[in-house]
From TrEMBL:
Cellular component aspect of the GO annotation: cytoplasm
Organism: Jeotgalibacillus salarius
Function statement: Catalyzes the NADPH-dependent reduction of ketopantoate into pantoic acid.
GO biological process: pantothenate biosynthetic process
Protein name per Swiss-Prot or TrEMBL: 2-dehydropantoate 2-reductase
Superkingdom per UniProt: Bacteria
Length: 300
C-alpha cells in the first residue's frame, strides 16, 4: 500500500478515530483543529484509543493551515459548522479530493460553492466517544462507506485499501442512495434516543419504542421508497441490537450541552414531504422535541 498525506479537518470523536486508524494504516496524518490548545495537545501526545495504541500525528489550527502538501482532505466537522469553514476549504488546491463525513443531506447543497474537481461523500457507522482533546473510546465497529459526488474514483483507492478488521471501508456507486439510507437510519435512532435519554438497544427491546418506530418507518418509506427497499424495518432493529450499548451521537450532544444536527437530518425529509404533499406526524414531532430540549437548555 502506498502511504499518502491526509489532512483531517475536525478533531471531535470521529476526527480522532479517523486520524488514529488511518495513521495505523501507514498514512501521514495531519489534523486541523479549532483551538490552539487542542493542536498543542495532539502534537505533544498524539492520538490515543482507550485500551489501544497511541498514534503520533501532527496538528495545527485550521485557519493557519496552508494545505501545501496533502493528497486528500477529510472533513469531519458537524454539519452546522460546514458553512463557516467554506473559506478554508476554498484554500485547498482544486485537484485535491475532499471527503465529507457529515450526517444528513444539507452539505450537498454547499458543493456549488467549491471549485474542487473531486468531491466524495461518505457515511460512518462506528460508535465512538471523545474522552479528552487527544483520546477516544471506540464503542462499536461499523462501516465507512464512500461514494463519489464528482471526480475520479482512483484518487481515494489508497484510502479504501486501508481496510482493517476494526475499520472496514467500502465504495458505493450511488451517493444519493448512500446518504438517504444513512438518513433513514439516523432519523430512526438518533432523535428517539435523545428525547427519551436511552441507549440504542432500548429501541429494539421496548414495545412502545418499536410501535413509534414502525409509524416513523412508514413515514420515511413514503418519502424515500427506493432507499427503504434497501433498508428494512428489521435492518433498523438489527442495527439497534448490534449497537445496543452505544449512545447515539445526538444523545451524546444533548448530554454534553452541544447543538445537535437535528435540522440537517429532518430538514431534507420535511422538504421532500412538502414536495409530495404528504403530512408526516412523527417526523415533525421529533424535530420539535429536540429543538425544545435545546432551547429549554438555553433558557435555564
Amino acid at each position: 500500500m502506498i502511504s499518502i498525506h491526509i489532512h483531517i479537518i475536525g478533531a471531535g470523536s470521529i476526527g480522532l478515530l479517523f486520524a488514529h486508524q488511518l495513521k495505523q494504516c501507514g498514512h501521514h496524518i495531519h489534523i486541523c483543529t479549532r483551538t490552539e490548545q487542542q493542536s498543542d495537545q495532539i502534537n505533544l501526545h498524539g492520538v490515543s484509543a482507550s485500551g489501544g495504541s497511541n498514534q503520533p500525528v501532527t496538528a495545527s489550527v485550521l485557519g493557519r493551515e496552508a494545505f501545501t502538501r496533502t493528497d486528500a482532505v477529510i472533513i469531519a466537522v458537524k454539519q452546522y459548522h460546514l458553512a463557516g469553514i467554506i473559506p478554508d476549504l476554498q484554500r485547498i488546491p482544486a485537484d485535491v479530493p475532499l471527503i465529507f463525513l457529515q450526517n444528513g443531506m444539507a452539505h450537498v447543497q454547499l458543493f456549488p460553492d467549491l471549485n474542487h474537481n473531486h468531491i466524495f461523500v461518505s457515511t460512518v457507522e462506528h460508535g465512538v466517544k471523545k474522552l479528552t482533546s487527544h483520546s477516544f473510546q471506540h464503542n462499536g465497529i461499523g462501516w465507512w462507506r464512500i461514494a463519489k459526488f464528482r471526480g475520479n474514483d482512483d484518487l481515494v483507492l489508497e484510502i479504501i485499501n486501508c481496510n482493517q478488521s476494526n475499520f472496514p471501508i467500502a465504495f458505493d456507486q450511488d451517493y444519493e442512495s448512500l446518504l438517504t439510507i444513512k438518513l433513514i437510519k439516523n432519523l430512526m435512532i438518533n432523535p428517539l434516543t435523545a428525547i427519551f435519554m436511552v441507549k440504542n438497544g432500548s429501541l429494539a427491546e421496548n414495545q412502545y419504542f418499536k410501535d413509534m418506530m414502525k409509524t416513523l418507518y412508514g413515514e420515511l418509506s413514503t418519502l424515500f421508497p427506493a432507499a427503504a427497499e434497501k433498508c428494512s424495518f428489521e435492518d433498523i432493529l438489527d442495527l439497534c441490537r448490534r449497537t445496543a450499548e452505544n449512545e447515539s451521537s445526538m444523545l451524546s450532544d444533548i448530554n454534553a450541552g452541544r447543538k445537535t444536527e437535528i435540522e440537517s437530518m429532518t430538514g431534507y425529509a420535511l422538504k421532500v414531504a412538502e414536495e409530495k404533499n404528504y403530512l408526516p406526524v412523527i417526523l415533525p414531532f421529533l424535530e420539535k422535541g429536540i429543538l425544545a430540549i435545546e432551547t429549554g437548555r438555553e433558557t435555564d
